[in-house]
Amino acid sequence: MTKEEAKKRIDELRKQTAYHAKKYYDDDSPEISDFEYDMLMNELKNLEAKYPEYIDKESLTQKVGGTVKEGFNKYTHEIPLLSLQDIFNFEELYAFDKRVKKVADDEEKELKYVVETKIDGLSVALEYEKGVFVRGATRGNGQVGEDITENLKTIKNIPKRLKEDITITVRGEVFIGKKDFEELNEQRELEEETLFANARNAAAGSLRQLDSTVTAKRPLDIYIFNVQKCQDITFNSHYESLLYLEKIGFNVNPVKILCNNVEDAIKAINKIGNEREDLTFGIDGAVVKVDDISLREVLGNTFKTPKWAIAYKYPPEKKQTILKNIICQVGRTGAITPMAILEPVIVAGSKISKTTLHNEDFIKEKDLKIGDTVVIQKAGDVIPEVVEVIKKKRTGNEIEFKMPDKCPVCGGPAIREEGEAVTRCIGIECPARNLRNIIHFASKEAMNIDGLGDAIVEQLLDKGLINNIADIYYLKLDDIKSLKKNGTKFAQNLLDAINTSKNNDLDRLICALGIKNIGIKSARILAKEFKSMDALKKASVIRLSEIGEIGLITANSIHEFFEQEQTNDLLNKLKKAGVNMKLHQKKNTDERFKGITFVLTGSLENYTRDEASKIIEEYGGKTGSSVSKKTDYVLAGEDAGSKLTKAESLGVKIIDEKEFEDMIK
Question: Mind listing the domains of the chain with CATH numbers?
Fold first, then answer.
């Protein structure tokens, strides 16, 4: 490689690593695996070492990658939160040991190390004064992070008060455990939210929410792994400091192995590697730290990394196997996902016999065919994935895969909307979608059937007491009583709530049907425009698209929904059960809010957001989802979030619940 070629490659690598670091640290949505990123960084480090004249202080080899997210206050770390130098083989670990011994001025002496798991999460600093938690922040760029104290207070394993009145700053890693991550994604699928790619993204995204009530709902955990600063105690050994942290109430990294020399450290790394599948949390390597605190102080740091610690990265294990078949599974949201059925193979300690192929585009991009020999690896050491096809092993008998145009479960239409990667079943009575459909139907913003929560719906389905939405209205007292011991009162209350919901206005029923792109706001517009379900059913795509705020894509969704035989069967059952299908005609000539836009934020005492929005709209006003210069009022309740801050910065009028009630009296 010539000097010119080296400079060109260095520039390319800097752009690539900067882009991927932003996706990882700031956006919490990486596009490549940790291993691929590590390889880019390693190549850049090696080239910069070979051509030091091209080193730039803005290169990510010279600094930590994160920045402060807009909306958080900056927090300057008194002791920087540095990143770690990565190594990928034991020769590099021996070289590290040699460098440390040279500084210790005794190259024959065996040094103690502590080997710990490198937890795959988000690094934070926690500050305590006289035993009380006072502040916490993200790592950021190592020097300046984000003050996320309120979010950290929602994590149950962060003690609010220690067992000793000590002034101390510690460093830890916030993460989401493997089982909790699976359950979180299952719940998000149920609620039709985008799934998290991995546990690290989920943890980082949850911790960096501007609204701490969102953070509180996520299953975040933390392990502490270092004393940054301690006012009252001097430690001689890192291992002893970890034991002390456990004693005073911290949740310390459970995998910490004290090693007498570098050979023991290698054994510890191999032990962690062999047992990582059994860990309840994800890791992306093992960390080797000098145990002697005084030696650590002598070794010091570079601007980016400590010289007394190093991170060993495990290479992803890859295996070849046969793609025996591709089947399609239907999720609770109706998403049809192709699934690879594989010749069973052991990868990273687990038997892999199937894995998701995500969507049609993924299959085309990889050029996958049934019968192919494929390479499998574990992404992030957790999720199995197909990496590539070994095309030279093709025999000519391989079979092309085509996404179905009908749902494999109910036979309803399988639609892929323009601009989307996912194919979905839109059948409202599809058994695969039943749980999600019924939960949505009964939810507060839809039919608002109090008592018909997730767990009750699951029991009703499991016992065969209901098979679709309409069956709710044919339930008997004895059916519901069977769900709970001494359940007569509960059953009667639920039946009363079901019967009450029959009289809901048309907009709630339209929203409850779960038509794609139709929420409560659009449902109100449709109810006001058509005034009956029959009229809405008969509306053409052109007629629907002419309505303000509907548009052609949504118009097509509505038309496709009502064209299905399943939909008409369901509506007939609902009508027969006595569910209202018409708009309640209200003579309201008071349009005091005409031309006025409100934005709601926080929790109101006497109204749900939906109820407050409905009042505003009944008086001719509009509700917006975000604050802008065109917003007239921000109605702020308890725990108001970033919308309140935005309103203050734009000078938008902010009102509380009492002022709102004065306006509607």
Answer: 3-54 (1.10.287.610), 74-312 (3.30.470.30), 318-393 (2.40.50.140), 426-576 (1.10.150.20), 597-664 (3.40.50.10190)
